[in-house]
């Protein structure tokens, strides 16, 4: 029997525990793992030479499939190149099992080649670090080796999921002899069976009573994968208690909940717009007494800062396990349940329900507003710029106002409670309605200079239904969070907001495209993120469903849009780091269909072909001027601030 039999058993353990996708990078020290995974009939192995790109591709696979993916690399600095993706997986709670081949322990720090200190390589950014036994000839050592891999996979998948490292010291010989068959033994694995925590009935009753009796309650969602059960439970909760629900685009609350639900009855998503209105009356009207949160990070800095300043008397965070962040410095209670289970349980009837009429909260103008800003319209200030002399995107067909009420709204409430909650709900809905109308009007201004904000608006309006939208960091994620998506479209949104880095956004989208080849996968990215991660395309696997929208302003354009760097003389050289690269050569090198546009007319003509299924893997490069983008976005922000000026 081979001295490497315990290593050769690793793919069998993975397969039995549900890991069927492996991304590896070639190397000599990892050869026993490479050969074993490649020869296992239940494992799909993909080879990506660049370890940083490989790890993010693995992250994209795991993020999309919602199950663990394995990474395999050789010894030395190879594993260090996994670190950015490992950190992202840790904070985004994505299960990765990282197998790092290593020198035997006696050769560490002995000036041997490709050797670094690999034990606990990722430190606090991994859920756990395991060391595979260096010698496995004894039966107990083989048992230990099997147990280590089983425990590592189990830990990676336990909520909150995350990355784990298994460091595997290997001695030569690494390769089987000519004609030697590799055997996969029957192995005993340890399975982790998931459970769902529930609250005692008396505790649920207390929570229901607190929600019913508190007039100013708001739900805020952080980043969260699409979850139909959660969407349905949230809408039922919002109806039962007349509570506004607010979420960034990456919370995926914009998706239709169920065919029987009025699609206008959806959570609010334009907080980046209405939170920028300098209206003290509005801020006071929106101030919550009870804040209920779930999910991970927020994109909206305006909402985050507002909630920190608002200091609600109570803040509950819903999370079944793991460390809970006190993001708004107001946390008073952690509820250990899955969010879908919590909202469904609290929304379910707990006794006889009162009968009452339904307050009209469909539009702010239907009755007196709590703040003067709600009665003011869009300002008439014109943007003076050189015209593009072409059309911008057609205004989407009206879908009706956002609403949270229909017959049976407030079914959990007394008449007094319902009246109080309707008074708090009204300014939230009015703000959302105004922001929706404002954006539709603003984006249709004639004679705009060609700019990336409006170009993104056009792209989002034409996204294929049922697609996956990956947003790179910096302005590529902020613009869509402001604009939102067309109502009723089933577009799931992904973004690497665990660490918010630019280093693997393209690779993550490619992993997603590989994981679901029948689904359109669209990446919206900026030039710095794109060119930084060009090795994402350095592999041999077709992705005909991938569409890359590249915003190339030849600079790190975000630095022109934030106070601080934009006022400094060092802006262009040391913050924007201007570059003159174009993506045409990258597209040619990796076989992507390439289109370049620099006007609204060209963009409007290109989008139907770009999104057509028969076009195959494609790259659309939208070239704009960084200063024009900054000026136009500042004009947008000024319009938001001044539209309600007296």
Automatic annotation (TrEMBL):
Keyword terms: Magnesium, Manganese, Menaquinone biosynthesis, Metal-binding, Thiamine pyrophosphate, Transferase
Cofactor(s) needed by this chain: thiamine diphosphate; Mg(2+); Mn(2+)
Thiamine pyrophosphate enzyme N-terminal TPP-binding domain sequence ranges: 10-110
Keyword Manganese recorded: yes
Co-factor binding comment: Binds 1 thiamine pyrophosphate per subunit.
Domain Thiamine pyrophosphate enzyme TPP-binding: 507-621
Domain of life: Bacteria
Pathways involved: Quinol/quinone metabolism; 1,4-dihydroxy-2-naphthoate biosynthesis; 1,4-dihydroxy-2-naphthoate from chorismate: step 2/7; Quinol/quinone metabolism; menaquinone biosynthesis
Similarity field: Belongs to the TPP enzyme family. MenD subfamily.
Entry function: Catalyzes the thiamine diphosphate-dependent decarboxylation of 2-oxoglutarate and the subsequent addition of the resulting succinic semialdehyde-thiamine pyrophosphate anion to isochorismate to yield 2-succinyl-5-enolpyruvyl-6-hydroxy-3-cyclohexene-1-carboxylate (SEPHCHC).
Name the UniProt record assigns to this protein: 2-succinyl-5-enolpyruvyl-6-hydroxy-3-cyclohexene-1-carboxylate synthase
Organism listed in the record: Hymenobacter gelipurpurascens
Gene: menD
């Amino acid at each position: 029997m081979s001295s490497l039999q315990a290593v050769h058993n690793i793919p069998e353990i993975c397969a039995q525990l549900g890991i069927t996708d492996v991304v590896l990078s070639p190397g000599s020290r990892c050869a026993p793992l490479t050969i074993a995974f490649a020869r296992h009939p239940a494992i799909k192995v993909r080879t990506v030479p660049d370890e940083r790109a490989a790890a993010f591709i693995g992250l994209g696979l795991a993020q999309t499939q919602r199950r663990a993916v394995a990474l395999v690399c050789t010894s030395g600095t190879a594993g260090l190149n996994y670190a950015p993706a490992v950190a992202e997986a840790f904070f985004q709670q994505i299960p990765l099992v990282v197998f790092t081949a290593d020198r035997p322990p006696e050769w560490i720090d002995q000036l041997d080649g490709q050797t670094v200190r690999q034990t606990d390589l990722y430190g606090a950014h991994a859920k756990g670090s395991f060391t595979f036994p260096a010698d496995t000839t004894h039966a107990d050592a083989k048992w230990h080796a099997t147990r280590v891999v089983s425990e590592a996979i189990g830990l990676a998948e336990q909520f909150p999921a995350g990355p784990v490292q298994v460091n595997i010291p290997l001695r030569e010989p690494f390769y089987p002899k000519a004609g030697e068959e590799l055997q996969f033994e029957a192995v005993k694995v340890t399975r982790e069976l998931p459970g769902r925590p529930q609250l005692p009935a008396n505790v649920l009753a207390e929570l229901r009573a607190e929600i019913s009796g508190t007039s100013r309650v708001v739900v805020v969602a952080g980043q969260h994968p699409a979850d139909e059960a959660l969407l349905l439970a949230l809408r039922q909760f919002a109806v039962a208690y007349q509570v506004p629900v607010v979420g960034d685009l990456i919370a995926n609350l914009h998706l239709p909940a169920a065919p029987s639900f009025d699609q206008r009855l959806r959570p609010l998503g334009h907080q980046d717009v209405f939170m920028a209105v300098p209206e003290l009356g509005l801020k006071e009207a929106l101030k919550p007494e009870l804040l209920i949160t779930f999910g991970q990070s927020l994109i909206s800095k305006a909402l985050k800062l507002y909630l920190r300043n608002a200091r609600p008397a109570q803040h509950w965070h819903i999370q079944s396990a793991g460390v809970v962040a006190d993001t708004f410095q107001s946390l008073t209670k952690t509820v250990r349940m899955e969010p879908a289970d919590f909202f469904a349980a609290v929304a379910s009837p707990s006794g006889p329900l009162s009968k009452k009429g339904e307050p009209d909260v469909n539009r702010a103008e239907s009755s007196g507003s709590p703040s003067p800003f709600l009665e003011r319209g869009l300002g008439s200030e014109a943007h003076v710029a050189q015209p593009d002399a072409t059309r911008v995107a057609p205004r989407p067909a009206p879908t009706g106002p956002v609403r949270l009420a229909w017959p049976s709204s407030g079914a959990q409430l007394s008449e007094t409670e319902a009246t109080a909650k309707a008074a708090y709900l009204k300014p939230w809905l009015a703000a959302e309605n105004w922001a929706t109308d404002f954006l539709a009007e603003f984006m249709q201004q004639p004679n705009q200079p060609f700019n990336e904000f409006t170009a993104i608006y056009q792209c989002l309006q034409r996204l294929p239904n049922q697609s996956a939208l990956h947003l790179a960091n910096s302005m590529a994620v902020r613009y869509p969070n402001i604009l939102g998506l067309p109502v009723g479209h089933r577009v799931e949104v992904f973004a690497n907001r665990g660490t918010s880095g630019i280093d693997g956004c393209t690779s993550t989208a490619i992993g997603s495209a590989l994981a679901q080849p029948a689904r359109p996968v669209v990446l919206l990215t900026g030039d710095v993120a794109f060119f930084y991660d060009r090795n994402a395309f350095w592999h041999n696997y077709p992705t005909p469903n991938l569409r890359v929208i590249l915003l190339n302003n030849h600079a790190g354009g975000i630095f022109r849009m934030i106070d601080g760097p934009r006022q400094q003389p060092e802006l262009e050289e040391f913050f924007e780091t201007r570059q003159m690269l174009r993506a045409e050569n990258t597209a040619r090198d990796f076989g992507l269909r390439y289109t370049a546009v620099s006007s609204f007319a060209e963009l409007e003509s290109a989008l139907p072909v770009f999104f057509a299924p028969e076009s195959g893997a494609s790259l659309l490069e939208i070239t704009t001027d960084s200063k024009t983008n900054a000026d136009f976005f500042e004009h947008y922000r000024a319009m938001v601030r001044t539209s309600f000026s007296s």
